[in-house]
Amino acid sequence: MDVKMWTYIIVGITFALYIGIAIWTRAGSTKEFYVAGGGVSPLANGMATAADWMSAASFISMAGIISFAGYDGAVYLMGWTGGYVLLALLLAPYLRKFGKFTVPDFIGDRYYSNTARTVAVICALIVSFTYVAGQMRGVGVVFSRFLEVSIEMGVVIGMIIVLFYAVLGGMKGITYTQVAQYCVLIFAYMVPAIFISLALTGNAIPQLGFGAKLTDGSGMYLLDKLDGLNQELGFAAYTDGTKTTMDVFAITFALMVGTAGLPHVIVRFFTVPKVKDARQSAGYALLFIAILYTTAPAVAAFARTNMINTVSNKEYSSMPEWFKKWETTKLIKFEDKNGDGKIQYVKDKEKNELTVDNDIMVLANPEIAGLPNWVIALVAAGGLAAALSTAAGLLLVISTSISHDLLKKQLNPNISEKNELIAARLSAAAAVIVAGYFGINPPGFVAAVVALAFGLAAASFFPAIIMGIFYKRMNMQGAVAGMIVGITLMIFYMLKFKFGIFDGGKDAIDGLKSAWWFGISPEGFGTIAMLANFIVSIIVSSMTPPPPAHVQQIVEDIRIPRGAGAAHAH
Amino acid sequence: MSNKNLQDYWNRNLTYLVVLLSIWFLCSYGAGILFKDSLDEIRVGGYKLGFWFAQQGSMYIFCILIFVYVWLMNKLDKEYDVDEK
Fold first, then answer.
1. How far apart are CA A561 and CA A109, in angstroms?
2. Which residues of A touch B63 (CB under 8 A)?
3. Is A277 within 8 Å of A36 (Cβ atoms)?
């Protein structure tokens, strides 16, 4: 059977599974819609969190980015896993004990003001919308590459599927589909990785193959070989990287803290029955994420070795079939600048003749390694699972922010349970349509902003939540001032150095690099904005009255596990 | 529960946090970033040690840290009788 047929079959089966689960787990109350009734087991929640968290970017692009960045790729590996330690130790158990539905719920109650709640809702919406548009785009891209439909058509198919299970099942439907999606995506990621590790190093475990000797008869370690290849072609050694230590530090920190502050991740910990379960499921979540995240750098190194060996200084006419195939999708581009008929892949831009898209490293891996067609189809299903699960989690945050945080808590507190549920479903449907629109017509800034969503989350939510739990004296004035200063500073830095809007637009960006504050890139600036938030909060709160007694009581109360009922609305 | 007990419980929790987060910091920012170059002098199989911490080791340690915390806190909750029934 050819690849296309296999893809139809495997993607078809997985989609039928997701829809089946959606019908099985319809939500009957707002509690089921917002937090799956609060009865999800820690293991299931760990899997769901892992799928929720790992997006199309983790599945398709990350290994490719590491492959080109070498050591520097570690910022994503550590940044996107280390945040779970912060979540498990500093946030999840306490927010679970607090026992409401959303992050703005916590901010609004702990800082006893609707201003704080509104600031939190706006931050949640900014972060989630930028993120979800990227996911819908990812769905479209996977469809178009594997099934040869247009990207637009792919986005529409994705929208219909997500609409179906997010609107019908709410958090309950999303949770159990995410469990299924995790299984699909991890299987799809590991199968090619294991085959390639075996082929290159003779070791079936990619994490070990990464540090093993090559089986090509050279007797060299894979990483030494790769360092050599890189340097021969003028790149930095694979294990060294090019970013400054300060910048690596700042980016890693911003990603970690941003991860811990992302509303669609935090809300997953409201779905388990107990405080104890919240801690434990953070552990499971990281374990399930780490399976993919420790494999990714191995895949990156394997793929780069394979690629350089296959193309560097070889005749263009002797390229294997996959090279030509991916050339037609424009993910591989070759331009014979010196006219010798060979491919020169080197660092020097003037002489380099080959451009390779990041995504190739995962998408084309099975073909490069000569794996059977069903493995290629499996990778397509895995990419779709990763994109859909993250999109659904984000859409739920958006719909909850509107129906619960804005409508129920501010505009119309007397709304009936039944009407609130209808409002939640309608806002989920509206959010899917808006996200789909941006997926089809991506504004130029989406790609740039997705990476910065972490900085925004780090600069706004993280300090407000941490001090809400660990610093009893923190009051409304301090928290609101801190959030506003943090997010404004972050947005300012982003506009100035990522978009160059104060200095004449995109073309000015490269010239502005030398003006980066403390040598920190916009991606890492969340760290500084977060510190500014902490400092402003503490100074302002020390000059204003302490929070009222009942709020201090809330803080006392969330610090001990006993008495945590299921999440409730009042 | 009395205030004194509650304060004790909280202080023990904070002690755990400080110790575990110090390890978190040392294995990622320390071994993987700040001291990466000197650790790279040491080799373990095909890995330079600093590089291994950055792209493999720190993630394993993160996992272990969370499960150690879960275990410590479950014990502490019981000891101070604040666990969930």
1. 19
2. 283, 286-287, 290
3. no
